[in-house]
User: Which sequence fits this backbone?
């Protein structure tokens, strides 16, 4: 038999290790697109390198 599910996120009082209190939380953190921009710029950079290598090999 499976024990009932215990939801740790409904804590009250002192936050457990690894949690940040509401007053220290950065609400706009997930609105930033840093990972997406990094991936796009990396793909553009790899594409440029591939084009340059293919141009050098073809000549």
Assistant:
């Amino acid at each position: 038999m499976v024990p009932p599910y215990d939801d740790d996120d409904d804590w009250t009082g002192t936050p457990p290790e690894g949690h940040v209190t509401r007053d220290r939380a950065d609400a706009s953190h997930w609105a930033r697109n840093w990972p997406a921009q990094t991936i796009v710029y990396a793909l553009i950079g790899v594409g440029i390198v591939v084009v340059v290598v293919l141009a050098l090999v073809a000549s």
Observations:
- DSSP finds one helix and no strands in the chain.
- Helices lie at 34-58.
